[in-house]
Amino acid sequence: MQIIQPHYHAIARTAQDYERMAMSGVVAVCEPAFWAGFDRRYPETFIDYFAQISEFEPTRAAEFGIRHYCWVAVNPKEAENKELTNEVLRQMPEFLEKPTCLGVGETGLHKSTQNEIDALQAHVEIAIKHDQLVLIHTPHLADKAHGTKTVLEVLAGMDVNPDKIWIDHVEEQTIESVLDAGYWAGMTLYPVTKCSPRRSVDILEKYSNERLLVNSSADWGPSDPFTLQESIVEFRRRGHSLQEAVEIYHNNPCRFLGQNPKWDIKPITISEE
Amino acid sequence: MLSPQKNLDTYFLEARRDLLEVAAMLDRYDRSVEKEGKKADDESRLNSLIEALALLSKKEHPESNRTEQLLVHFAKVS
């Protein structure tokens, strides 16, 4: 089965991940800009990072036949540094022109501070100005419900096209409000702190799947790129057809990401010969 | 042995995850009942889980043997 990994932090992972993902059917990964585990001090560090994910990482993925795309943003944790954020935002548009850059992300909220909200608004404004897709991070654990509500309130006050916005890391307590507002919703599968593969399939069975994305967001912390494949196995185990799986784990990412013409992987239909 | 606080800090998130999986399993059962319009012919495993949760919900366990109690409890269900 062909699989798209819509949210994956490749720079934090080894080439073995690429190799094993390729062997499991992954044909493309998308790498949003994220927190490095420490607060970067210089805008130039971000610029090098953006170059890494837009220029170098596609070559590493290509070694294994995987297409690599990226997103650029200042993540919410570092958005507390307003001076740094503003300077990175000033230079960010040049990276939106890169042939594998799909949009602005992951922006969003962490502790839902005013600085984070200001940065989220600034990112979305840039996306609107440059007609870009937006990937929005929602907070973890205890901050999730409040942070997601705040994200929705911020977006409601802006002239956004919900078709072009993916709100990520939804769980059972937040998914309904995201879908009701017309946005795409992403489930991130972590071993401990986010949604699980089985719960993701529960959610897929409960809600209309048209605007749902599933990803593993594997990074430098406790995470596993193959939680995505666990979700697929669970989905199929419950009797859903191969085509239904393809619709969710391959075609839905194509439908959302394909709004950017740089994404040229098309939805596929499984032949029943 | 870890300190009481360190125990909570170390294992809380994993326990949270495991309880969420139990909750999701029970929700999954309810939805299947709703979809099929009937309960499982044998609900003894469901009842066993609910009883186990009741056992866990008691805060005081002077012998600190919840695990042993659950194993004995689950042994009643094939």
What does this structure look like?
The complex is a heterodimer of chains A (273) and B (78). Chain A has an eight-stranded parallel beta sheet, sandwiched between helices. With 273 residues, chain A is α/β, with parallel strands linked by helices. The two termini of chain A are 16 Å apart. Chain A has one domain (3-257): TIM Barrel (Alpha-Beta Barrel). Chain A has ten helices and eight strands. In chain A, strand 6 (165-167), helix 7 and strand 7 form a beta-alpha-beta unit. The longest helix of chain A has 20 residues, at 43-62. Chain A has helices at residues 15-23, 43-62, 82-91, 93-96, 114-129, 144-156, 175-180, 197-206, 227-237, 242-257; strands spanning 3-5, 26-31, 67-72, 101-108, 133-137, 165-167, 184-188, 212-215. The model of chain B has no long low-confidence stretch (mean pLDDT 96). Chain B has 78 residues and is an all-alpha fold. The longest helix of chain B is centred in the N-terminal third of the chain and has 33 residues, at 4-36. Chain B has two domains: 1-39; 40-78. Helix content of chain B is 72%, strand content 0%. In chain B, helix 2 (44-57) packs antiparallel against helix 3.
Write out key terms for the chains shown:
heterodimer; A: 273 residues; alpha/beta; TIM Barrel; 8-stranded parallel sheet; 10 helices; 8 strands; 42% helix; globular; B: 78 residues; mainly alpha; 3 helices
Kindly report the average pLDDT value of chain B.
Answer: 96
User: Which structural class is indicated by helix and strand composition of chain B?
Assistant: mainly alpha
User: From the coordinates shown, what is the CATH architecture of chain A?
Assistant: Alpha-Beta Barrel
Corresponding CATH superfamily of chain A: Metal-dependent hydrolases
Greatest interface (CB-CB under 8 A), with counts per chain: A-B, 10 and 10 residues
Main sheet: strand order of chain A: 1-2-3-4-5-6-7-8
Portion in beta strands of chain B: under 5%
